Amino acid sequence: VVELAPEPPAPRALLDLGACVQLVRQGDEEAARALTAQLYPLVMAIVRGHLPRRSGEEDLAQMVFVKVFAKLDQFSGTVPLTHWVSRIAVNTCLNALQAERIRPELRWADLSEDEEQVIASLATKDEELEPGHQLAARDLVERLLEQLNPEDRLVLTLLHMEGRSVQEIRRLTNWNVSLIKVRAFRARHKLRKHLAALLKEVQP
Amino acid sequence: VNPLEKQLNRLLQAASRARPEEPLAAPDHWQAGVVAAWKADRTGREEGLILRRFLRQALLGATLVALAAIAFGYITADPPGDETLLINSPLSWNVGRGHYLP
């Protein structure tokens, strides 16, 4: 018996988004399925970047798609579909963050062992954190961001975690440039205060 | 630069390098769920549209009937000072067309 090697997956055909949108507007299920498959990586990346702690990413992504389909008649086509969908995804995440009202204070005892090491390393060394600490650093930043209000959290995530420019944030949130800069400055200040509280534990 | 600011920068830089894992393709059952939710939403909207259209027509009909009743004298407003509304239809218990209750 000759075992055949599994065939490599066929490259995904590029979808004509404009035609697909037209078909979805007419209620075509296959087109809706194709559009979902095409936009899934984009939506999921945004949802994962801004997910509230108690939300399921798939539920939130589904909410985004239902909104996208429900509002598809309002899509004028003046901006690329991906930009329009990104904005809906960011707004949906913002609404989910706003719904998550309880923001418990982060204490030293709440940190994992790796997160404690990150704080200790920040307090005692001047060089960059070791690559092995990057994941723990990300978890720690996410926990620190959870203590901020949703808009502050969103702006810092977009700016520092995703490395987006102010113009990109303006396009995604519809906030003006001054508001973004002021909000980022104030949010950073708050984040610094929360970090200082943790650092006090290792360098009283 | 403030040492705390430096520490925050180092933390944010390290955190931004730990990229979240790339999302894979959408699972089939999940896609089916999205399409089903979209269909249910679409059906709900269409039903809501039909209901709204029906209610609008019913309201228009009721308004026309009321206007006709006023025009033919079946419904009259009270004289000033009296806030009760009288319906002087031949079937009502009332005293008859053109009269007001004391």
Descriptive account of the structure:
The complex is a heterodimer of chains A (204) and B (102). Chain A is mainly alpha-helical. Helix content of chain A is 65%, strand content 0%. In chain A, helix 1 (17-25) packs across helix 2, helix 2 packs across helix 4 (81-99) and helix 3 packs across helix 4 (81-99). The longest helix of chain A has 26 residues, at 177-202. Chain B is mainly α. Chain B has helices spanning 3-17, 28-71, and strands at 75-76, 86-87. In chain B, strands 1-2 form a two-stranded antiparallel sheet. The N and C termini of chain B lie far apart (89 Å). Classes of the chains: A mainly alpha (204), B mainly alpha (102).
Strand order of the largest sheet of chain B: 1-2
Instruction: Report the order of strands and helices of chain B.
Output: HHEE
Number of strands of chain B: 2
Q: Which residues of chain B sit in consecutive blocks of at least 5 with pLDDT less than 50?
A: 89-102
Q: What does this entry show, briefly?
A:
The complex is a heterodimer of chains A (204) and B (102). By secondary structure, chain A is mainly alpha-helical.
Topology:
The complex is a heterodimer of chains A (204) and B (102).
Chain A: H1 17-25, H2 29-49, H3 57-70, H4 81-99, H5 113-124, H6 134-145, H7 150-161, H8 166-173, H9 177-202
Helix pairs in contact in A: 1-2, 2-3, 2-4, 3-4, 7-9
Chain B: H1 3-17, H2 28-71, E1 75-76, E2 86-87
Antiparallel strand pairs in B: 1-2
